[in-house]
Design a protein that fits this description.
Layout (H helix, E strand, L loop, with lengths): L2 H19 L5 H6 L5 E8 L3 E2 L3 H11 L4 E4 L6 E2 L4 E8 H29 L8 E3 L9 H10 L13 E3 L1 H7 L2 H11 L6 E5 L2 H10 L3 E5 L3 H11 L4 E5 L17 E3 L2 H4 L6 E8 L1
Parallel strand pairs: 6-11, 7-8, 8-9, 9-10, 10-11
Antiparallel strand pairs: 1-5, 1-12, 2-4, 3-5
Helix pairs in contact: 1-3, 3-4, 4-5, 6-7, 7-8, 8-9
Length: 283
């Protein structure tokens, strides 16, 4: 993330996380460290994976004390190994102690998402299919989690409800049908907006094509029906496959030929990457 992105999108959320962890003081640190003392601590990887969120990690300490110095031995997107030293943080020992957990929470969460995303994206290599995330993100963490998906080799679906038109089953129910939903969306939306609609069977797919949808999401359909759907959509609409996609079952979707595969698991089910701050000492 560049400085403009950081200040516009990240600082407020990082400060909120710090306020959650420090309501009045860090009583543990203040009890053993009454005055300023310069120190340093090492960022250590405890598990193989993909690192993501180093700028956010760094920003936590900078917001506590702008004089904190951080030197990294890697960059976002790098593969890291268990036992590897990833960086050194130097500054007021009180700041190093107070910012430790918040900084690690961001970095572990984002690196876990990048690691899990990379493992699925590797399975799609050599195909035209792009791996997408969803809006199934942790509240107030979306900007960080979607960034981590990109670091891991995935792509971002719409960022929020203002970002694009996606008509799902309940929208279709509210509108009275697939054709009606697409028609109303076309009437309301600016001409520069694409219209995506979710379908659950081939009859709904045919209605969506007839209505002129730009992108059709194939939701929880059988592999055979999805292959037929891709054939029917050829040259008429882009296709997206969705529905409980994980690393364990994505292989069955690789040869279908869809343009996109979306997976909520990238952000809602990725385990963290184990990282730690170790060897704190005065300098």
């Amino acid at each position: 993330m560049n400085n403009i992105t950081m200040k516009m999108n990240a600082d407020e959320m990082i400060l909120s996380a710090l306020r959650e962890d420090i309501t009045s003081e860090d009583i543990s640190t203040n009890s053993v460290m009454r005055d300023f003392s310069m120190g340093e601590v090492e960022l250590i990887c405890k598990q193989d994976g993909v690192i993501a969120g180093l700028d956010i990690f760094k920003r936590v300490f900078e917001l506590l004390d702008g004089k904190t110095e951080i030197t990294f031995c890697c960059k976002d997107g790098d593969t890291v190994k268990n036992g590897e030293k990833l960086g050194i943080i130097r500054g007021d020992i009180r700041v190093l102690l107070s910012g430790e957990r918040t900084a690690l929470n961001f970095l572990q969460r984002m690196s876990g998402i990048a690691t899990y995303t990379r493992s699925i994206a590797e399975l799609l290599k050599g195909t035209k299919t792009k791996l997408l995330d969803t809006r199934k993100t942790t509240p107030n963490m979306r900007v960080f989690e979607k960034y981590a998906v990109k670091v891991g080799g995935g792509y971002n679906h719409r960022f929020n409800l203002s970002d694009g038109i996606l008509l799902k089953d309940n929208h279709i129910g509210a509108a009275g049908g697939v054709k009606e939903a697409v028609r109303m969306a076309k009437e309301y939306a600016p001409f520069v907006r694409k219209i995506e609609i979710e379908v659950e069977n081939l009859d709904m797919l045919r209605d969506a094509l007839e209505a002129g949808a730009d992108i059709i999401m194939l939701d929880n359909m059988s592999v055979e029906d999805m292959k037929e759907a891709v054939r029917l959509c050829e040259g008429k609409a882009e296709t997206e496959c969705s529905g409980n996609v994980t690393k364990e079952n994505v292989a069955r979707l690789v040869d279908i030929g869809v343009d996109y595969i979306s997976s909520g698991a990238l952000t809602h089910s990725s385990p963290i990457l184990d990282l730690s701050l170790k060897n704190l000492h005065a300098i």
